[in-house]
Design a protein that fits this description.
two-stranded antiparallel sheet, globular
C-alpha cells in the first residue's frame, strides 16, 4: 500500500476511488526516517496517515472519492477528510449504507479484496487482496464504480 500511495503522490490519478465500509485513519507511509520529505514536504518524520495522503492527493488535483458506511467507527476518518481547513480541494466522502466493495482504484492500478482500511484489516486479520495493473480491467472497473456509486448515498 505504501508504494501505491507514494506513486500516487508523485503522479496523482485523475480520479481515485477509495471504497471501505469500515475506515480508520491508519498509518500508510513510513516516513519515520524522513525519507519521503520531498514527496510530502512540511510533514514531520513520522508515520503518515491515510487521511493525510488522501487530502494531499485532492490538493494535487486528484478527484478523490471515498465511499464508506455511516457507522460510529468511521467518524474520526470521515471528520478528518470532511473538515479540511485552508484553501484547496478536499476528498469527496459519500455514505453508502449497503457498501461491501473494498479497494482503491487509480488511473494505473486497482487494489481490491476483503481488506477494509482499518487497523485490523491492515495488520491483524487474514485478508486477501489482488493488485491489477491491466488498463482494460481498470477502465472497466472505473466505469462500473461511476455507474454504481456516482451520486449514490449522500455527502458525509
Amino acid at each position: 500500500m505504501q508504494n501505491l500511495l507514494v506513486t500516487e503522490l508523485l503522479v496523482p490519478s485523475g480520479q481515485l476511488w477509495v471504497l471501505s465500509p469500515w475506515i480508520s485513519d491508519i498509518d500508510v507511509i513510513d516516513n519515520t526516517a524522513g525519507q519521503f520529505k520531498t514527496v510530502l514536504p512540511g510533514l514531520p518524520s513520522r508515520w503518515i496517515r491515510l487521511t493525510e495522503v488522501l487530502i494531499e492527493l485532492a490538493r494535487r488535483g486528484s478527484d478523490v472519492r471515498v465511499l464508506t458506511r455511516d457507522v460510529e467507527s468511521n467518524i474520526i476518518a470521515r471528520q478528518r477528510l470532511e473538515n479540511v481547513g485552508g484553501l484547496g480541494a478536499k476528498p469527496a466522502v459519500r455514505i453508502h449504507p449497503k457498501l461491501h466493495d473494498k479497494g482503491i482504484l487509480g488511473d494505473r492500478f486497482h487494489l481490491q479484496g476483503s481488506m477494509n482500511f482499518t487497523y485490523f484489516g491492515q495488520a491483524v486479520n487474514a485478508e486477501g487482496v489482488t493488485l491489477t495493473r491491466d488498463p482494460h480491467a481498470i477502465a472497466e472497473t472505473r466505469i462500473a464504480y461511476n455507474a454504481l456509486y456516482e451520486g449514490a448515498g449522500h455527502a458525509g
